[in-house]
Design a protein that fits this description.
Layout: H1 3-25, H2 40-47, E1 52-56, E2 59-65, E3 73-78, E4 84-89, H3 93-96, H4 106-113, E5 118-122, E6 127-136, E7 140-148, E8 154-161
Antiparallel strand pairs: 1-2, 2-3, 3-4, 5-6, 6-7, 7-8
């Protein structure tokens, strides 16, 4: 390839990358900047409309699910006084560990980690599966699945590599 073609190809690649980054920046994939003590309307003004709202006693949670590939869901806890108590990323091993097998139901799971990225039902074992793509320990592309029985009670949790990001191409749910 002639040198001026290489330069033109590099320039076009840089322009395409800049355009992509510019358009992606407008999607608000960040976690936002809110602080305890702000009112719920200030939180909504900064973060936008939540993807879910979950009552929790005299408090409620505003869910900000960023999508499967961003591996993030943030929860803003609003107190009875209408002010922000906390704002945190909930797709973590620590939060998944709060889900009690044999005790937690679907509403509890929603309050702990929010809506799943995928739902499946396994007829043979009679279990519903809610799956979450997340960045385990800030490093590994992981996939946590929470299994519910017919009564909606958690029966088990299963963690493994995220099949959509697994370089081995293991496919859906890690099955070949």
């Amino acid at each position: 390839m002639k040198p001026y073609f290489k330069t033109a190809a590099s320039a076009l690649s840089c322009i395409a990358l800049a355009a992509c980054l510019s358009s992606c920046a407008g999607l608000n994939w960040g976690i936002g900047s809110v602080h305890p003590g702000e009112t719920e309307s200030e939180v909504r003004a900064e973060l936008g409309e939540p993807t879910g709202v979950y009552p929790d006693g005299d408090q409620h949670l505003l869910e900000y699910m960023r999508g499967r590939m961003s591996q993030a869901t943030h929860m803003a806890r609003i107190g009875a006084d209408g002010k922000l108590i906390s704002y945190e990323q909930v797709l973590t091993l620590q939060k998944f560990a709060e889900i009690q097998v044999g005790v937690a139901d679907k509403n509890a799971v929603l309050r702990i980690v929010g809506k799943p990225h995928e739902k499946d039902y396994y007829e043979r074992v009679q279990l519903e599966a809610w799956s979450y793509g997340f960045k385990e320990s800030g490093v590994w592309d992981s996939f946590m699945t929470v299994y519910f029985d017919k009564a909606g009670i958690v029966q088990k949790l299963e963690n493994g590599p995220d099949p959509m990001r697994d370089p081995g191409g293991r496919g859906h749910r890690g099955h070949r």
